[in-house]
């Protein structure tokens, strides 16, 4: 029934609805369900003691500054540290190319606010990060989708999609969420060339780039783009890519600290929009995170996280081999937090989820990650959050559920 309030909601909220899957997955947060559904980092690796020390130090040495309003661009020493850190990955930009945000999620929202008019088409991978679709939907975006395979975005299908005139492309080159796949160097180069040829800019979302467990680092799109002639303006970046990253997976997601790298003109616009949103990201959190991360701690900590997650990934891959029924395929992520499972086409993972939860194991059905529908026979599994022995047990349970359901559906068919 329409209430006084609901009759007044803005039109753009019409596409926001509560999802039955989300409601179902809420049930898995308590009790003894082994959940591969969330995208949560391992709580055991949060550097709690380091934060405790840093909070104390910051309050003692610069309490009033840390508790005061700050600039919208962000705490300068933190931005300078990010610039130094990124330079090691060959992302050579100036501090004026960097804006601190309340996680990458806020950056996605600000980008939507800056670039999307109602009805604008965006080119996204299929599947893609659900949180980005949620942010962009709020600005009434429409989508042109390009599928991914084991080497990431299918660049052989890109030109046709670009002819549909998308406003921008939203791309996840490293250990894609949800697909777990990585865009190859040759495809990255092709993508950069096509972006330039068709005049379509790229949003490169890279929360997981530092969490590589095997294989060689591949240059980010922003680097390949800055290597185009005329793009690197004496250390100031002025190209076709907006690059996003975050401390959520390397320090802790509860900090809500991410950053945007973009040409200065774009940063100035984003700063104006962010002022209207939250004035600035928490001064206290930025200063504390800077104190924790500086002096080499972040590198040391990332090395530790890589070890923990590599082990969990390997345990999950081995358990999948052991317990999953024939006819099921999955990706082999070289990093990140997720892998992607594809079942026979006639299987519906949304319908199987309640059976899995009954057996006390959970996953996310893949369909929500598809901007143009489909993906009913897919699911995303997270391997960072559960301990190795729980991963083994959870995959054993899920394998049993899938085998039973596949057998039952085969008989009906
Ligand atoms: C691809 C992608 N982008 C953005 C985010 C949001 O991260 P943050 O915690 O920095 O807001 C996530 C979180 O899981 C993600 O997977």
Mind explaining what this structure looks like?
The chain is an alpha/beta fold. The chain folds into 2 domains: 18-39 and 299-407, Alpha-Beta Complex (Aspartate Aminotransferase, domain 1); 48-294, Aspartate Aminotransferase, domain 2 (3-Layer(aba) Sandwich), CATH 3.40.640. It is built from 13 helices and 16 strands. The chain has helices at 20-26, 48-66, 76-87, 103-115, 130-137, 158-162, 185-198, 221-226, 264-278, 283-293, 297-323, 349-358, 388-412, and strands at 34-35, 98-101, 121-126, 142-149, 152-153, 169-171, 202-205, 232-233, 236-237, 241-246, 258-261, 329-330, 338-342, 361-362, 364-365, 378-382. The chain has an 8-stranded mixed sheet with strand order 2-11-10-7-6-3-4-5, with helices on both faces. Strands 12-13-16-15 form a 4-stranded antiparallel sheet. A two-stranded parallel ribbon has the order 1-14. The protein is globular.
Helix segment count?
13
- Give the low-pLDDT segments: none
General shape? globular
Series of secondary-structure elements, N-terminal to C-terminal: HEHHEHEHEEHEHEHEEEEHHHEEHEEEH
Radius of gyration of CA atoms, rounded to a whole number: 22 Å
CATH class of the largest domain: Alpha Beta
Bound molecules: pyridoxal-5'-phosphate
Q: Strand share of the residues?
A: 5-15%
Number of domains: 2
What is the CATH topology assignment of the largest domain? Aspartate Aminotransferase, domain 2
């Amino acid at each position: 029934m329409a209430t006084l309030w609901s009759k007044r909601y803005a039109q753009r909220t019409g596409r926001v609805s509560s999802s039955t899957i989300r409601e179902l997955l809420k049930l898995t947060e308590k009790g003894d369900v082994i959940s591969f559904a969330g995208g949560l980092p391992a709580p055991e690796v949060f550097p709690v003691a380091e934060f405790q020390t840093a909070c104390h130090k910051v309050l003692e040495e610069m309490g009033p500054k840390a508790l005061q309003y700050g600039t919208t661009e962000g705490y300068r020493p933190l931005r300078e540290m990010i610039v130094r850190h990124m330079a090691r990955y060959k992302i050579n930009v100036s501090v004026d190319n960097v804006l601190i945000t309340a996680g990458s999620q806020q950056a996605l929202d600000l980008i939507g606010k800056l670039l999307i008019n109602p009805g604008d088409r965006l080119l996204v991978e299929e599947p893609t990060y659900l949180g980005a679709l949620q942010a962009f939907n709020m600005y009434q975006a429409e989508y042109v989708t390009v599928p991914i395979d084991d080497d990431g975005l299918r660049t052989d299908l890109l030109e046709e999609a670009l002819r549909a005139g998308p406003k921008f492309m939203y791309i996840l080159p490293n250990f894609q969420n949800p697909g777990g796949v990585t865009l190859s160097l040759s495809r990255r180069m092709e993508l950069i060339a096509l972006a330039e040829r068709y005049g379509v800019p790229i949003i490169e979302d890279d929360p997981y780039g530092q969490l590589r467990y095997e294989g060689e680092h591949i240059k980010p799109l922003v680097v390949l783009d800055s290597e185009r002639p005329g793009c690197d303006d004496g250390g100031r970046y002025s190209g076709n890519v907006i690059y996003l990253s975050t401390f959520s997976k390397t320090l802790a997601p509860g900090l809500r600290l991410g950053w945007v790298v973009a040409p200065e003109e774009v940063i100035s616009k984003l700063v104006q929009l962010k002022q209207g949103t939250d004035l600035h990201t928490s001064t206290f959190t930025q200063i504390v995170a800077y104190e924790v991360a500086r002096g080499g701690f972040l590198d040391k900590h990332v090395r530790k996280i890589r070890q923990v997650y590599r082990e969990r990934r390997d345990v999950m891959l081995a358990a999948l081999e052991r317990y999953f029924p024939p006819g099921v395929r999955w990706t082999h992520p070289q990093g990140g937090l997720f892998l992607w499972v594809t079942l026979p086409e006639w299987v519906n993972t949304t319908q199987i989820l309640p059976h899995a939860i009954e057996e006390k194991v959970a996953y996310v059905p893949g369909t929500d990650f598809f901007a143009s529908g489909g993906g009913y026979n897919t699911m995303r599994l997270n391997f960072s959050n559960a301990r190795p022995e729980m991963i083994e047990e959870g995959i054993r349970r899920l394998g049993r559920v899938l085998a039973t359901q596949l057998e039952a559906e085969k008989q009906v068919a």
